[in-house]
Design goal:
The chain is mostly beta strands and 265 residues long. The chain contains one helix and 16 strands.
């Protein structure tokens, strides 16, 4: 699991570096075309040509399908005429602000010591969920919860995080970088036995997880994203050695790379 986690983290890191360089320099290397942009109330942003505008409707030409589509003005939030944009699908835009969002995240985390020469985590994984509201393109907030698993089959140490997530997007393109900041408290799971046969009961603690990633939207409602960050944690667990119940402290700091699927509405 250690080598697989490291490979996964490195793969995400390379992807994020390439994506960042490509997105930053993309607009300088492509021809620009004048377009009209229509913002629908359902969150969709259309780029093409406005052919006709009446008192109650708008006729729009889709340049990709070459079809004319008529929209009622009641379904349109606003429109812009004569804009200049890059000629690529990566520069299409999507509305993320003033929308609720939900995401499911699966992550692999590098291994390392949790407690000096006493407990070493050979496996670390995360399955978590977040539900929130994107107030602005640069600021959203949600509730984060899930499960952190430390240790392998013999040493099982599970923590359940409950906290707050902050996120923001640097652009309104369908493919954009974003930041993540998660933090809160963790509660422990039911006890398992360690290899020496001693009972172990996680008590919980707190965690902090800043990160950076890229999100790709397939329309206004569905998206996928990849992120990488550093996970800091502190907690306690009870251990029963020779019929003596004692409390021990746990500290951990790990690199984390994750993949998530999300929806917004």
């Amino acid at each position: 699991m250690t080598e697989l986690s490291l490979f996964f983290i490195r793969l995400i890191s390379v992807f994020l570096v390439i994506a960042t360089v490509g997105q930053v320099g993309f607009g300088q290397k492509n021809p620009h075309l004048p377009i009209d942009r229509v913002y629908l109330k359902n969150g969709s942003i259309l780029e093409g040509s406005i052919i006709q505008l009446t008192e109650d409707s708008l006729l729009y030409l889709n340049p990709y399908s070459n079809l004319n589509v008529r929209f009622s003005l009641d379904a349109i939030e606003r429109y812009e005429i004569g804009l200049v944009t890059e000629k690529s699908f990566l520069t299409r835009r999507v509305k993320r602000e003033r929308r609720f969002y939900f995401a499911a995240n699966l992550a692999a985390i590098t291994s390392g010591e949790m407690e000096a020469r006493r407990y070493y985590s050979e496996q670390y994984s995360e399955l978590s969920f977040v539900f929130g509201y994107q107030f602005h393109q640069f600021f959203g907030m949600g509730l984060h919860s899930g499960r952190y698993k430390l240790g392998g089959e013999e040493e099982d140490f599970k923590l359940f995080p409950i906290g707050i997530e902050f996120r923001g997007y640097l652009t309104d393109h369908v493919f954009t970088p974003f930041y993540l900041i998660k933090g809160g408290f963790t509660s422990g799971s039911i006890y398992r036995s360690d290899p020496e046969g001693n009972a172990r009961l996680p008590k919980g603690g707190y965690y902090f997880n800043p990160g950076f990633g890229f999100q790709w939207n397939f329309g206004p409602a569905f998206n996928i994203s990849m992120d990488i960050g550093m996970l800091f944690g502190h907690g306690f667990y009870y251990t029963n050695r020779s019929w003596i119940l004692s409390e021990r402290e746990v500290n951990y700091k790990r690199w984390k790379g994750g993949f998530s699927i999300g929806f917004s509405f």
